[in-house]
Specification:
The structure is a single chain. The protein has three helices and six strands. By secondary structure, it is an alpha+beta fold. A hairpin with a 7-residue loop joins strand 4 and strand 5. The chain starts with a helix and ends with a strand.
């Protein structure tokens, strides 16, 4: 015979257990969102300093960069070599403004996506024109085994002044 009191107690336990699970998941999302926001701040700071090694340390070893007009650039070491080659062709340039506005952080476990609007100004060496550019970036981030968020994929393209 079915004991309704036992059924009610069991239903209550399941309900409160699900509520606790959802609260823990919400707390985990909140923690991850805070971690991503700290990641974004560091990403911006390193770009302002033109700290290529620091920026590259934010990439996963097997990261992929999908730059406009380029074949996919696969692997952190290959991406770093590509960046260093670009910088070698621009000696004396200094970033004076880097504005990154991060949008729409989406979380799913150890994965996150977001997109960014970008505005950069670089002071040129004497006799060369200054650089000012606008772009959009799509980022796919992964929380690695050590708990750090790393860039797994980046897609960047130029855009008109936003």
């Amino acid at each position: 015979m079915l004991n309704w009191r036992s059924v009610a107690v069991a239903a209550g336990i399941v309900f409160f257990g699900l509520c606790a699970f959802r609260m823990n998941a919400r707390d985990a999302d909140s923690d991850a969102r805070s971690e991503i926001e700290a990641f974004n701040k560091k990403f911006l700071d390193l770009h302002l300093k033109m700290d290529t090694p620091g920026i590259m340390a934010m990439w996963a070893d097997d990261g992929v960069d999908l730059m406009q007009g380029e074949n996919p650039i696969v692997g952190r070491k290959t991406i770093q070599a590509w960046v260093e080659d670009i910088l070698a062709k621009m000696p004396g340039y200094k970033v004076t403004k880097e504005e990154l506005e991060f949008h729409d952080i989406q979380l799913c476990g150890n994965w996150a996506t977001e997109w960014v609007t970008e505005h950069q100004v670089a002071q040129a060496p004497e006799g060369k024109p200054n650089f000012e550019g606008y772009g959009k970036i799509a980022l796919v981030l992964h929380r690695e085994a050590d708990g750090e968020w790393k860039i797994k994929q980046e897609m960047w393209n130029a855009s008109p002044k936003l």
